[in-house]
Amino acid sequence: MEKLKIQGGYTLDGTVRISGAKNSAVALIPATILAESPVTIEGLPDISDVQILSDLLEEIGGKVTYENNELTVNPTEMVSMPLPNGKVKKLRASYYLMGAMLGRFKKAVIGLPGGCHLGPRPIDQHIKGFEALGVQVTNEQGAIYLRAEELKGARIYLDVVSVGATINIMLAAVRAKGRTIIENAAKEPEIIDVATLLTNMGARIKGAGTDVIRIDGVEQLRGCRHSIIPDRIEAGTYMIMAAGMGKEVLVDNVIPQHLESLIAKMREMGVRVETNPEQVLVAGRQPLKAVDIKTLVYPGFPTDLQQPFTSLLTKAAGTSVVTDTIYSARFKHIDELRRMNAVIKVEGRSAIINGPAQLQGAKVKASDLRAGAALVTAGLMARGITEVTGLEHIDRGYSHLVDKLSGLGAVIWRERMTEQEIEQFQNS
Ligand code: EPU
């Protein structure tokens, strides 16, 4: 087991290249199950979620090769093998195996998904969608059993705007008989990316990226080659770090339109941000002004950037209020930031930050992926050394974090934990 160590206070300067989007990758990889010939996805990030999903495809008979961030899946010999627990529990996105296996085999048995603990994360809207398509769904001993005689197109209104439910229903509906209409669909760029792959495979989808998606089911889907979109959350994380500690950081391989809400807030704080079609330049500068943010569905401020942005706000003069309307309990990083000298209190769904505070290095624990990003951001801005444990969360979503930050001039490294530290970590 390893921990991350950061010697804070170093200025970031230079260029960082963004990897493919984690939250697209975790849907694109299961989507390959639907094809009847090999699918290649290029530009995948080197993260553990990609590895786990590739392993799961092999468990059901897929032939998988992965080289130079390019994954090729030959799905011809796949079978609808039950995947009750084990690896599926390691990530939230294993729920996409449900939609994809339903589309291909009309049946699936999948363990309830794991992933970050951010408060209640039900999948009732996924189930509602599957049932509307004619699937019988039962929950037995922690696994979901899905079976349909035939998948039939349906009109489905999502009661909650959900990225996962929108994609999962799309995955099943592309092979249903007739037309499916998803109303109140999520509009995140990752949904467009998945729809693009499915369309290249021969699916008929209209409206991805709007709140009404129409899908006309087809008999067969074929293999193709797909290039993934860049990770807007990884890009946003480096932009936030650059706003805190950057001289001039060029964030390369991004789609700036995906980051408009973040760019607007950073400019409101007094940060200089310039964009061109594939890059964002961030010039951090003192002093930063306090701002309020409220997380919303896309194109609003993303909940996945709320935690690192909170770290940045500790450096801003005045009182900032951060409200998370998507997840009720995405505040586990706050106690850790307090250990580092931040002045923050949580009231209901809001964190109230009083700044500026000079953060101090401390031993802190990442409780989830973006909490990890928040603590690394804080560590870069802090005086002295910060030690971050819980790296397995960070490794799920940030490709080559240490190399990328070292390339910008940060002093950051991984270190093996002692047995005593591992014991303390496991008991904390
Ligand atoms: N919700 C329901 N019922 C459902 C589905 C969702 O009530 O059936 C609620 C959730 O509890 C939440 C809200 O609806 O309050 C939005 O959830 P959504 O389904 O959109 O989230 P998700 O698909 O499970 C994805 C990302 C998350 C990101 C959210 C919101 C993946 C694998 N995960 O989760 O990413 O926070 O959308 O944008 O795509 C992360 O990357 O750190 C991460 C957690």
From TrEMBL:
Q: Which InterPro entries match?
A: Enolpyruvate_Tfrase_dom, Enolpyruvate_Tfrase_sf, MurA_subfamily, RNA3'P_cycl/enolpyr_Trfase_a/b, UDP_GlcNAc_COvinyl_MurA
Active-site positions on this chain: C116
Record EC number = 2.5.1.7
SUPFAM superfamilies per record: EPT/RTPC-like
Instruction: State where phosphoenolpyruvate binds.
Output: K22, N23
Q: Where does UDP-N-acetyl-alpha-D-glucosamine bind?
A: R92, R121, P122, I123, D124, Q125, D304, I326
Domain of life where this protein originates: Bacteria
Query: One Pfam family from the UniProt entry?
Result: EPSP_synthase
What is the protein's known function? Cell wall formation. Adds enolpyruvyl to UDP-N-acetylglucosamine.
What catalytic reaction does the record list? Answer: phosphoenolpyruvate + UDP-N-acetyl-alpha-D-glucosamine = UDP-N-acetyl-3-O-(1-carboxyvinyl)-alpha-D-glucosamine + phosphate
Q: Which residues carry this modification: 2-(S-cysteinyl)pyruvic acid O-phosphothioketal?
A: C116
> Where in the numbering of this chain does the Enolpyruvate transferase domain appear?
7-405
NCBIfam families attached to this UniProt entry: murA, PRK09369.1, PRK12830.1
| Family listed | Belongs to the EPSP synthase family. MurA subfamily.
The record's annotation in PANTHER family points to: UDP-N-ACETYLGLUCOSAMINE 1-CARBOXYVINYLTRANSFERASE, UDP-N-ACETYLGLUCOSAMINE 1-CARBOXYVINYLTRANSFERASE 2
Kindly state which keywords UniProt assigns to this record, in alphabetical order: Cell cycle, Cell division, Cell shape, Cell wall biogenesis/degradation, Cytoplasm, Peptidoglycan synthesis, Pyruvate, Transferase
Location(s), subcellular: Cytoplasm
Name of this protein: UDP-N-acetylglucosamine 1-carboxyvinyltransferase
Q: Which organism is it from?
A: Bacillus songklensis
- Which GO MF term does the entry hold, naming one? UDP-N-acetylglucosamine 1-carboxyvinyltransferase activity
Q: Which pathway, metabolic or otherwise, does it act in?
A: Cell wall biogenesis; peptidoglycan biosynthesis
> Which parts form a coiled-coil structure per UniProt?
none
